[in-house]
Amino acid sequence: MHSAICPPGKKKITLFDEAFKGFICEIGFTGRRTYALRHINDRGTQCQYKIGDASVLTADQARKIAQQVKAQYLTGENPQQKRKVKRQVPTLAEITPRYMEHVKSYKRAADIDERYLRLHLLPRFGKLHLDEFKQAEIVEWLNGKVKDGYAQATVNRWQVILSHIFRLAGEWGIPGAERNPLKGAKLKDPNNMVERFLSTEEIARLKVAVEQSENPMLAPIVALLLLTGCRKREILDLQWDQVDLERRTLRIDRTKAGKVRRVPLSDDAVAVLTSLPQVCPYVLPNLKTMKPHGSIFNAWNTARKRAGLKDVRVHDLRHTLASQLAGAGHSLWVIANVLGHSQTRTTERYAHLSGETLRSAVNSAAKVSGTTWASPAE
Fold first, then answer.
1. Do the beta carbons of residue 283 and residue 245 sit within 8 Å?
2. Which keywords does the record carry (predicted)?
3. What is the pTM of this model?
4. Does the pLDDT at position 48 exceed 90?
5. Is a pLDDT exceeding 60 seen at residue 255?
6. To 5 degrees, how large is the angle CA 126–CA 129–CA 131?
7. Which of 52, 82, 221, 337 reaches 20 to 30 Å from 294, CA-CA?
């Protein structure tokens, strides 16, 4: 078999194994040798199953594979069809455009899915075929991202997107999506009720750190997050036509609640905005692209570590403004309106801060009276 060659004028010749009926080796005019298995299917038609290249497999290795394949045929399986289906299994990157087209038809925040896929999920899993995903591998990666400093709520969102893609692919009948690898993987508690508020001293340290950032836009971004209480994307995507310096407001067109809201601007916030050059439609663009930042995590992570505040999240800047408002004695209704909460129960997490202010107020009133009521008069 090894010495045989394809005669001149022929495209290929076929050598048959005398000991194993159907096991063959085809030799092409280029000298390439390929092992295969010929058999008769249930309809009486001769079929051929390619085993592999002889430059990779020995005859004995190819013969063993041929025996396994023939056994599958004899037990009613169709390895040829299984191989065909296997080749049709798309990668995550290949199925993503269909997913995005689908979610854009009904999901208001589809742009967030697109950004999370582009920046996080596709760089890690984009080249994997759908049948190659393993739950343990995905969960390990997600847990590692939390350790890297990403909020649990954000990482949970990535898990939901991946699971949603597999569920939809299964409904669409896409090969490789018969099993959702994230089925049964519970989302971890984001513990959103545990708030982190920055003290005056911590804010001063953070200010120094962000001003030293290699990203010149990080300092004004952080400043506006602290001064307005806006969500991160509301500031990153902000355009100049949303800024009304005369009325001292920002217009947020697409809020989390799906409504337009006006954000009041303090004198300090106005000062930050007026100091910024209007180089493009966006207020705080990536100066390399003149488009909104896809992510500020790397610059933020460097700055917070430099300030000794590695536990502080970007979203905590929003909580900090709320705590300052509560500390100044403002009602939960006022805080809710500043933050854009559609329901005041969302703001009730700051009730303990407001309560401390009220207690301080009644203590001050008691001192004015000059009378102590701690014990009955004798």
1. no
2. DNA integration, DNA recombination, DNA-binding
3. 0.52
4. no
5. no
6. 135
7. 337
- The pLDDT of residue 329 is above 80: no
Residues 6+ apart with CB under 8 A from 146: 152, 155, 188
- Is residue 66 helix, strand or coil? helix
Q: Which has the closest alpha carbon to 320: 245, 238, 223?
A: 223
Distance, in Å, from the CA atom of 158 to the CA atom of 167, rounded to the nearest integer, reads 14
Structure confidence at residue 224 (pLDDT): 94
Q: How far apart are CA 19 and CA 21, in angstroms?
A: 6
Contact criterion met (CB below 8 Å) for 362 and 329: no
Task: Name 131's bridge partners.
Answer: none
Residues 6 or more apart whose CB falls under 8 angstroms from that of 121 comprise: 92, 158, 161, 162
Q: What is the DSSP string of 316-346?
A: HHHHHHHHHHHHTT--HHHHHHHHT-SSGGG
**Count of C-beta atoms within a 10 Å radius of residue 152:** 18
pLDDT of residue 368: 66
